[in-house]
């Protein structure tokens, strides 16, 4: 039938550490965009929410804000959460991991022959950054590697 599925998983604990509400929505948006960019229609999500000890009020706040952000994002996109899990007590001693919501988006494409490849097609292709940049790289892997901070 040429019917196909597209799946993307995304998450960034650094963004969620800076702002758990927005960090969850950024994970959702990135996975959603990756599925849509392939030519598929995003239909549903699943999640894996990873946190330190919920006995720590700061971690519990991160968890509450993450779930609120994910719920608001899904409502706005009209995309149901069909499943997921929560992993707690991820820490060494008293040091918790960054709150890390991972979002998986499932989409369907009616004809896989019309899909849009995501990867670079050949070696040597260029990537351009257009426009001015300000604080939006905060929380990125680039910021961590180049500047050693969130």
Written account of the structure:
There is one protein chain. The strands form two sheets. A four-stranded mixed sheet has the order 1-6-2-3. The chain starts with a strand and ends with a helix. It contains four helices and six strands, in the order βααβαββββα. By secondary structure, it is an alpha+beta fold. It has helices at residues 13-18, 20-37, 57-77, 141-147, and strands spanning 4-10, 41-50, 81-87, 91-92, 95-96, 100-109. Helix 3 (57-77) links the parallel strand 2 (41-50) and strand 3 (81-87). The chain has a single domain (4-147), classed as 2-Layer Sandwich (60s Ribosomal Protein L30, Chain: A).
Percent helix:
25-40%
Q: What is the number of independent domains?
A: 1
Q: Could you tell me the CATH topology label.
A: 60s Ribosomal Protein L30, Chain: A
Largest sheet: number of strands, sense, barrel closure: 4 strands, mixed
> What is the class in the CATH system?
Alpha Beta
Question: N-to-C SSE series?
Answer: EHHEHEEEEH
Backbone shape: globular
What class do helices, strands and sheet pairing give? Answer: alpha+beta
Poorly predicted runs: none
Mean pLDDT: 92
The number of E-state strands comes to 6
CATH superfamily: PurM-like, N-terminal domain
Which CATH-level-2 architecture? 2-Layer Sandwich
- β-sheet strand percentage: 25-35%
Report strand order across the widest sheet. Answer: 1-6-2-3
The Cα radius of gyration reads 17 Å
Distance between the termini: 47 Å
The number of distinct helices, counting runs of at least 4 residues, comes to: 4
